Amino acid sequence: LSALRMLSLRQLIPCAYRFEASLSRLSPLYTVLPTRTTVSLAISTRPFSVSTTVWKKKESIDKDEEEEDDDGLPQDYKKKTLKIGSRRLDTFVAKSAGVPSSQAEKLVLSGKVRVNDEKTCKKAYNVQNGDAVDIWQKVCADNNELAYAIRVEVKDYEVTSAGYDIHVHSWNKFLVDNWR
Predict the structure, then answer these.
(1) Which are the contacts of 156, defined by CB distance < 8 A and separation ≥ 6?
(2) 60 phi/psi in degrees, rounded to 5
(3) Distance between CA atoms of 10 and 1, rounded to whole angstroms?
(4) What is the pLDDT of residues 24-66, one digit of tens each?
(5) pLDDT value at position 128?
(6) What is the 3-state secondary structure (H, E, C) of 30-48?
(7) Number of C-beta neighbours around residue 73 at 10 A
(8) Across 33-37, 44-48, 101-105, 126-130, least confident range
């Protein structure tokens, strides 16, 4: 600490910037988090602060993101971005299930689509952030009270010039209660 007290402000700040620059040359295992940390130092009679970037391994960042998304659902989903012209349920079902729009309309009208665990026959419903859409596929062979469905959860959407970019998590064979 006494050696630090001998350093002047002009000597300490360039050292902090050289340290930050040396960290940026590390392998791609390290990345910059968007936050900055201010460290207050009282080396002389006047306190001053140095701002530096917080570095963290990418692996630990990925683990933090997984923990935020732990909602009890299986983690074998696929992240997709659906580019569609509208947020209507029939258009959303057609794009997420990979079926023609006429067949998607029939799925909605026949009650094979649920939004947030409620059957719906309204094909004009606009999907929202946080909606979970289940598209009924078939009854489970082992238990008639369960069925396989395509589950698509809407995470976020953006308005674009061509329509909407809807960011979703999708499961192809999701086990749900048999509502049919």
Answers:
(1) 129, 166, 167
(2) -70, -30
(3) 17
(4) 554 444 444 444 555 555 555 555 555 555 555 555 555 545 4
(5) 93
(6) EEEEEEEEEEEECCCCCCE
(7) 14
(8) 33-37
Would you give the distance in Å from CA 149 to the centre of its chain? 22
pLDDT at 1 over 50: no
52, β-bridge pairs: 37
Is this structure's pTM higher than 0.70? no
Written as one letter, the residue type at 17 is Y
The CB-side HSE value for 71 (13 A sphere, CA atoms) comes to 9
C-beta of residue 148 within 8 angstroms of C-beta of residue 173? yes
CA angle 160, 166, 172 (to 5 degrees): 150
Distance, CA of 56 to chain centre: 20
The answer to whether 47 touches 41, Cβ cutoff 8 Å, is: yes
Q: Partners of 174 in the beta sheet? A: 149
